[in-house]
Amino acid sequence: MISSRAISFLFVLLLRPIVGAPSTEQRHRFSKIYAFGDSFTDTGNTHSTTGPYSFGYVSGPPYGATFFHHSTNRYSDGRLVVDFLADALSLPFLPPYFDRSADSSHGVNFAVAGSTAIEHDFYVKNNVTVDITPQSLMTQLAWFDNHLEEKGCKRRGSSECQAAIADTLFWVGEIGANDYAYSLTSTLSPDIIQKLALKNVNNFIEALILRGAKYIIVQGLPLTGCLPLALTLAPSDDRDDIQCCATVNRQSYNHNVILQNNLQELRKRYPHAIISYADYLGAHHTVMKNPAAYGFTEPLKACCGSGGGSYNFDLFATCGSPNVTKACSQPSKFVNWDGVHLTEAMYKVVADMFFSHGYCRPPFSVLLNAESQG
């Protein structure tokens, strides 16, 4: 029979922490996220009065209806991938840069809907004025610099700068889709757009590294040819094996190949930085090949749109406009939300694929482990 003294001793052993296995609270993790990108990442920098052409109703319902139950100026019915990233790191949702009263201690979101990789001046000089959003990646970099200065970072390498960037994950959301859209309504060559856009993305990432960024995730473009907008505008015979626009998807694929090559060169030049590529196109394609496996019954039709038919999309009567005040009753069954942007359900699936199923290369766990080791 075990004595009461022995039982007490065993109880103490069970309660004593195991050496070398710190608790979740003790484990060192990212304390901040700085995010950049376009409408796929924007958590509120853009409002209806400043939004992209034909999508100028983001400040009202039915945007935000699923999770927040009101509009948060996110281009979806709920959360975005960057929101699920914050959840994965046990951090609050990122406030938009323009919300100057928000708590920025856990990071800031600089992404803007309609933002381009190429500077807006280039489009103005080429008489392309379809989009009213003048911001580019370099605009967001300037905002980031301003934010750092407000945190006391006035000289690179200073203790103030190191403190402002310490324990930070940099999230570069997909960017470039708006640039390619410009080539559809102008005489600008898609090849020129590709060259300039990728050059600017590369310069932007390098600029982050030079400012002290050590942990960076860069998203590629999704299957832009699967968006109802692209499918509505493309000829009906321009289709691939998943019934999306083959030409546009090929454009995104080629963009991503060059982007990955550029990231590899940056890794060689800056070996102290961990740069992970988030394979948006790969994740998107996996879902589109077998949407039912992920709970989707409508892979190509917009949940919040008009016109019915195969895509339920009309460029002149988009989500939230006077003619489109209601969305579908089950957004979780739809991949697409409003003809260009995705539903919360799809963003959640993509986020899970990024963070838990190997669609980040190197894997998300590599960044977590590297950061936890300092």
Automatic annotation (TrEMBL):
CDD domains noted in UniProt: SGNH_plant_lipase_like (cd01837)
Record has Hydrolase as a keyword: yes
One Pfam family in the UniProt entry: Lipase_GDSL
InterPro entries in UniProt: GDSL (IPR001087), SGNH_plant_lipase-like (IPR035669)
Keywords: Glycoprotein, Hydrolase, Signal
Keyword Ribosomal protein annotated: no
Domain of life according to the entry: Eukaryota
Signal peptide range: 1-20
GO molecular function: hydrolase activity, acting on ester bonds
Family assignment from sequence similarity: Belongs to the 'GDSL' lipolytic enzyme family.
Record protein name field: GDSL esterase/lipase
Organism: Zingiber officinale
Taxon lineage: Eukaryota, Viridiplantae, Streptophyta, Embryophyta, Tracheophyta
